[in-house]
Every structure is written in structure tokens, then in C-alpha cells.
């Protein structure tokens, strides 16, 4: 049994990880989360109080972080400003949390010699052409496009430097696009599902040809647990489930699964600097750590996710109007 500190554990992927830990291990979890607009206590509701504690606070608060590192065996670092569109609007919080926040955790890991796993994204590698046979690997050069992805790239490089210069016991994973329960309605899949529920037409940026490589959040969690248990210190692992889909195909599938005409969507203003395609080669994780995604196909996963948003309207309803007003102001 280990005492885990999970930063950002009230957000989308962090809360899925906390549920995964409770279901599949006997570890206890302290969640450190600032509860920004993206954090939600309700995502941790129903978890056993003797195994999961929520501390509301900022990862850039050095004294708080110091106190927490002193009483945990390992830290899994999810906390971030995570949305590209927001980073185009106001990059500052991305620098504060993703860069200075990660630096604060690294300094505490160094002081307390605590094992740290840093959660990152495939976006640090930039994008691929639609017909490029190559996918991202652990050796692909960094080439981030947006304020969000550049701050994530910066945080990865800080982790690598603290491993090499100070011997911090850290690993890094770069994962592709996640979907599943507890994802904020600002993101692509929940936005379109909740649009259909509300009678709004789904909105595709540009021509809808952009490709993302989808993985269920629960498969991301099992991969992170494998790296935490068996990953080699100082190493990076790419996480993906061979789930490439164009945005247009995703919207058409959602409409079809929700009993609507698959052509019933709008093309809207494109995202500036919009990455064309992401694709992950997760061979290393599979070969060295024996990880495999467990979640059934994307269509079945989407079906379950649609059911979750239908059954949990109280979880997302409060955020929906504000998100749509933000997008409408940008012609999206
Ligand atoms: P999210 O926006 O849903 O959640 C982020 C959480 O971090 C929220 O609960 C928020 O309150 C918290 N937070 C933000 N700033 C904080 C601060 N200064 N101190 C403490 N807590 C703070 O994000 P997500 O989609 O769950 O992403 C989690 C992590 O996974 C991020 O590091 C992201 O870069 C990475 N990632 C996301 C995806 C994806 O598809 N969403 C894919 C790969 C990697
Ligand atoms: O690849 C991993 C990344 O995936 C993570 O690092 C990010 O934290 C996460 O937000 C996600 O980034 P994306 O920018 O790919 O996700 P988003 O859900 O914002 O958009 C997915 C795709 O859908 C992208 O091509 C933009 C497009 N899109 C998005 C919205 C919100 C639309 O076409 N319409 C929309 O309404």
C-alpha cells in the first residue's frame, strides 16, 4: 500500500485515475487541486473517505506542496491548464500552472526524494501530415504549436533537467486525446454530445479533416499505473490506443449514436494554428511494461460516454451556457 499524491485529481483525467486507483489497488490518495473552472468536487463523489482526501490548493504554493510531499510516497502530476482554445485567449495561467507549478513540484521532489510521475501530452511533438506514415515516438523532436502545448513541452524539459542535474526520481508520459466520463464540456466530444442533448447543432472547426488519436481515460490510467509500478526512472513513455479518427467522423458517429442525421452539424471558424494530426506509436510501453488498452472499440466507448452525459446532466449543466457564450464570441 502506498500513499499517493495526485495533483489535478478533481479534473477530467485525474479524477478518472483516482477512481481507477480505488478500484484496482489498495493505495490511499490525496488529491491536490485548485478547483479552477475545470476542477469539480463532484467528480470524486462516492469515493471512500478513508482512502481519498481532497486538499484544495495551488501546485505553485511551495509551503503547501512541501508539507504534502513530506507525507506521501509518490506523486502523480496531472494538474494543468489544459485547453488549447483558452491558451489562445489568455496564455498567462498556462505559464503559472504548467511551468511554475511543475517547477514547484520538482523542487519539493528534490528536497524530499519523492518519486514523481509527470503527465504530459502528444501535442509537444507538433503535428503530422494526414498521409505521413510515421507516428510520434519517444525520440520525435519537440515542436509545440500553441501556448498550451509549449508550456507542456517546457514542463517536460524541466522534469528531464531535474532528473539529470539533481537525481530526481521522475518518469514522464505523453498521451494522446482522452475521452470518457467527467470531461469538461469545453472539450470536443463532450461539447458535441451536450450540444445534441440541448438541441444545438455540433460545431466542427475548419473543414473537420483534423485527426486526433483517441484513448479512453481508463486506459490512460492503467498505463500510468504501469509506469508508476515498473517504469524506468528518467524515462519517457508514449501512451496511445491506435484510435485515429477525423473530427468529422467523430461528429457523424455521435449524431448517428444519438439518433440524429449524421450531416446535421455546422462548420465554424478554425482554431488559429490548429494542429492537423496526432498519432502515437506506443510500442515501447507495450513491449517494455506489457501494457495493453482494455477498453473496447471507439464506437462502444463513445456510446458509453454519451450515456454518461445523458445520465449526469447535473454534473455539466452549470458550465454549458458559459462555454457556448465563449465559443460564440469567437465564431465557433
Ligand atoms: P482538466 O483541465 O480537466 O483538469 C485539470 C485539473 O487541474 C483541474 O481539476 C484543475 O482544477 C486543476 N488545476 C489547474 N491549475 C491548478 C493549480 N495551479 N494547482 C492545482 N490544481 C490545478 O485537464 P485534463 O484534461 O484532465 O488533463 C490532465 C493532464 O493530462 C494535464 O496535464 C494535460 O496536459 C494532460 N493530458 C490531457 C489529455 C486530454 O486529452 N485531455 C491528453 C494528454 C495529456
Ligand atoms: O492530444 C492531447 C491533447 O488533447 C491534450 O493535451 C489537451 O489537454 C486536450 O485538450 C486535447 O487537445 P485538443 O486540442 O486536441 O482537444 P479539443 O477537445 O480541444 O479538440 C479536439 C479536436 O476537435 C481539435 O482538432 C479541435 C476540434 N474541435 C474542438 C472543439 C471544442 C472542433 O472541431 N470543434 C469544437 O467545438
Tell me what you see in this structure.
With 332 residues, the protein is an alpha/beta fold. It has a domain of 202 residues: Rossmann fold, CATH 3.40.50. The protein is 43% helix and 17% strand. The protein is built from eleven helices and twelve strands. Strands 3-2-1-4-5-6-10 form a seven-stranded parallel β-sheet, sandwiched between helices. The N and C termini lie far apart (47 Å). 46% of the residues are buried. 2'deoxy-thymidine-5'-diphospho-alpha-D-glucose binds next to α6 and β8.
Keywords:
332 residues, alpha/beta, Rossmann fold, 12 strands, 43% helix, binds nicotinamide-adenine-dinucleotide, binds 2'deoxy-thymidine-5'-diphospho-alpha-D-glucose
Radius of gyration: 19 Å
- The CATH architecture term of the domain at 3-178 and 214-239 is 3-Layer(aba) Sandwich
Summarize the main sheet. Answer: 7 strands, parallel
For the termini, the CA-CA separation is 47 Å
> Remind me, CATH topology of the domain at 3-178 and 214-239?
Rossmann fold
Mean pLDDT, to the nearest integer, reads 98
| List of distinct ligands in this structure | nicotinamide-adenine-dinucleotide, 2'deoxy-thymidine-5'-diphospho-alpha-D-glucose
Strand content: 15-25%
The residue fraction in helices comes out at 40-55%
Label the overall shape.
globular
Following the backbone from N to C, one meets helices and strands in this order, namely: EHEEHEHHEHEEHEEHEEHEHHH
Give start-end ranges of low-pLDDT stretches.
none
CATH class of the domain at 3-178 and 214-239, anyone?
Alpha Beta
Strand order of the largest sheet: 3-2-1-4-5-6-10
Oligomer: single chain
For the secondary structure, the number of strands is: 12
Number of helices: 11
The H-level CATH homologous superfamily of the domain at 3-178 and 214-239, spelled out, is NAD(P)-binding Rossmann-like Domain
Q: Which structural category do the helix and sheet elements fall into?
A: alpha/beta
